[in-house]
Amino acid sequence: MKMTFRWYGEGNDKITLDQIKQIPGVEGVVWSLHDMPAGSLWSPERVAEVEKQAQEYGFHIDVVESVNVHEDIKLGLDTRDQYIENYKQTLRVLAKFGVKVVCYNFMPVFDWTRTNLYKKMPDGSNALFFEKSKINEIDPIELIETISKNTDVTMPGWEPERLANLKQTFKQYEGFTAEDLWKNLQYFLEQIIPVAEECNIKMAIHPDDPAFPIFGLPRIIINKENIGRFLKLVDRPHNGLTVCTGSLGSIDNDIPAIIESYHDRIHFMHIRNVKRFENGDFIESSHRACDGSVDIVEVVKTLHKYDYQGYVRPDHGRHIWGEEKWARPGYGLYDRALGIMYINGLWDTLNHKS
């Protein structure tokens, strides 16, 4: 298990590499060029900048999260081939810098979705919160305005250039089905995976967050059955998974069973916990198994059972000790550092027993 920490880059992350360096066990930063619009070609010069910054602190840049997929590819428009070609060339650029894994998603329009970025919890902390009834009632444009005015930092999946033409994008998705999305995903994979093999970069799709349709848009990477279908679209080792326990945990998935079934195709793990409620709401919790609905202990035990050698990072944490005043929503320093120590503690205990 290789522990990493997501870092949004100089000038775009109030958490510094010096602070990350002080978290025991972190070997690398998970990064991206967050100012690059989906579908654009990444330059070697920009990647070299990130590599230099990370190497100054002894970190590798093995994992990119994400090289975003342009909406035209998801929609299957005639323009998709040029964006796919840019994606291929970006993979070739990344390979020159030793990148091993690219995390991406195939969610229409929205990336992760929440209705409250700073929901107060009984212990005084606050966290990302999803209120299902509000999603059913709210206009998506209203949600975007609410999210945008609550943060002054870039939010992956909520980039202004992606959302500027939201009304037009929703119109393009009228009548669009899950089967349409499956077909377009297969087309993308058939083009990309041979290049990934050439570059020895493992592609790791991220589950949909939340793992059910919203605003009438299909979601397909949501459960064990669908993950199995995905892996068979292009059944090669470089076509693999990011298993996000929080995204899959937004509904009642048996995540250890998913790991059991597909452990040899998991290239990246996002380990976090969420507390689900009977009405469909959920909130990010601490990483402790007893604090949420995901049995993080069993997740780590199952990974250990198969001697997981891939990359791991703690995912969304609560905002604690007042960091909501400055932290990116879901991506503070303190609770993610605590999450690393919890995950590493479980792993060390299992190593000690064996």
UniProtKB/TrEMBL annotation:
This is Mannonate dehydratase. It is an enzyme of class 4 (lyase). Catalyzes the dehydration of D-mannonate. Belongs to the mannonate dehydratase family. It catalyses: D-mannonate = 2-dehydro-3-deoxy-D-gluconate + H2O. GO terms for molecular function: ferrous iron binding; manganese ion binding; mannonate dehydratase activity. PANTHER family: MANNONATE DEHYDRATASE (PTHR30387:SF2). Pathway: Carbohydrate metabolism; pentose and glucuronate interconversion. Its cofactor is Fe(2+); Mn(2+). Pfam families: UxuA. It comes from Vibrio rumoiensis 1S-45. The lineage of its organism: Bacteria, Pseudomonadati, Pseudomonadota, Gammaproteobacteria, Vibrionales.
